[in-house]
Amino acid sequence: xxxxGDYTSKHQDGVxxxxxxxxxxxRNNIIHDFTQNIYFSITDFRPGGMENIQIYGNVVYEKDxxxxxxxxxxxxxxxxxxxxxxxxxxxxNTVVHTLNSGILLxxxxxxxxxxxxxxxxxxxxxxxxxxxxxxxxDSDSQFVNPANFDFxxxxxxxxxxxxxxxxxxxxxxx
Length: 174
What we know:
The protein is mostly beta strands. It is 0% helix and 46% strand. The chain has no helices and 18 strands. The strands form 4 sheets. A 6-stranded parallel β-sheet has the order 1-4-7-10-13-15, with no helix packed on it.
């Protein structure tokens, strides 16, 4: 199952999957103003788990919605009920101003990778597996026009050519 190229806005959770979930790709979307923008969770006691999840090339942002102070998350993959979560790849995403967490891979995830993401004014949670080659910034983002939600990079951005060279570029912003 793939979800790509969609522009979405104003629902409690933007992109949400429960269990069992296998072989899902969420790529090249612009998703904003949700409590949990991209959310995968094992939500009940049905058998199975989650595996082979790819989340890449997405732009996720929050426009200062005061109702989202507690729950607001950019990309969130969690495991509950001691089920397996295996092979979660999160790369080449831009996450801006999600107040609770920018990217969070929680508890017991096997083979999780978080690479080549830009996380701006949003925390990269400490439980996130294999965090590397991510640009996490609270100051000047070097986006073209973030006030108008244009998150293309200026030519002077420190994010340019700072990612993992072993991970090929996978998208361009629309």
